[in-house]
Amino acid sequence: MDKHCNHNIPETKKGIGPCDIRYEVKKRNGKPNWWCRTHGLEASDPSGQPLPACSGAWFEPVPRHAQRDICLGEGEVALWGVVPPGIAIGDIPTEPGKVHVHFRESAGSKKLIDGSFEIVRLQNGTAEAVVESMAAQALAVSRLTSQEMVPLPCPHCREIHIDEQKFATQPHRKHQCNGCGRNFWDKVPSISNPLANLQRDLGLPPPLPPQRVHRPLNIRSSDFAAVAMWPSNSAIVSTMSRPEDVGIHVHAWVDGDEGPHLHLDETYSPVVLDGQIVDECALRMLAVQRMLAKETHVPIVALDCASCGHPLLSPTTGWIEPVTRHRCGSCGAENRTRLKSFVNPLAAIGAC
Hints:
Layout: E1 21-26, E2 32-36, E3 41-42, E4 67-71, E5 76-81, E6 87-90, E7 99-104, E8 111-117, E9 119-124, E10 127-132, H1 133-144, E11 172-176, E12 183-190, H2 198-201, E13 211-212, E14 217-219, E15 226-231, E16 237-238, E17 245-246, E18 248-254, E19 261-268, E20 271-273, E21 276-277, H3 280-296, E22 300-301, E23 323-327, E24 334-343
Parallel strand pairs: 4-9, 13-17, 14-20, 22-24
Antiparallel strand pairs: 1-2, 2-3, 5-7, 5-16, 6-15, 7-8, 9-10, 11-12, 15-18, 18-19, 20-21, 23-24
């Protein structure tokens, strides 16, 4: 199966200037591949002629309030790529930005920053780095599927490639550069992300190993205005003096005089919701499935095996993509759906 990289536009390339459209190489169908070097997007029309502008020309620059500059020497910092909650019940409050930041002046002090941004600039002495949403979310998907990453420069233009969506879930040799649109091959199957070694690149010591928490939670969704649950996911960069918690991160809102306010904001394990224990493996996969289905509107369904009645879960290894054939992990029987779909036993609990 030909698996060809699709591209979004990185936040730092939005609104940076007019298109620079160049002929790169021919496509497999023999037509020219015109590519915008400014925005890193294809600029060919169906006949093979260059477009007057690529789709990236319509984006406005990221507003200043959606950006943040942080000096790592001024406190404890941790950053994560934002993914949709696996379980979402009720009207979940959302905030713009896909790079979530925690900042404290010192260990144990109140968080001065607890919000999400599109672009975060980090400085540690003379070392500097930019974390933008596209790369941050791709890294989160790779880590949720337990994949290693490398920062892979394109041999043609030297831009560090970003493998996103399903390409962030499975190592592969063939990559299509975000910068110039050319295909290139790595020596071994790999997943590329410019943030892969960011902790080291900023001259920071490795973070403390994550630790599983024993913090049981048993709640009923009817007691809250809204509930959201995410699988824990290691930070892109962390200078925290304590290890990250491993478990299920829960937000729960209750109604107040001025609207819903956050009542629960903590990582728990184990978690029981409405009398059912939440399976962390299924929740991890559901968060990834919701991320991959977001742009394509692929259905995610709860489906029991027609042969043995066991709940079906899409494979958690290999290419994470929707299919019509779903093999039961219990009896091995093949089940089919009319549409290409993801299957997950937790899908019926809530939807994003």
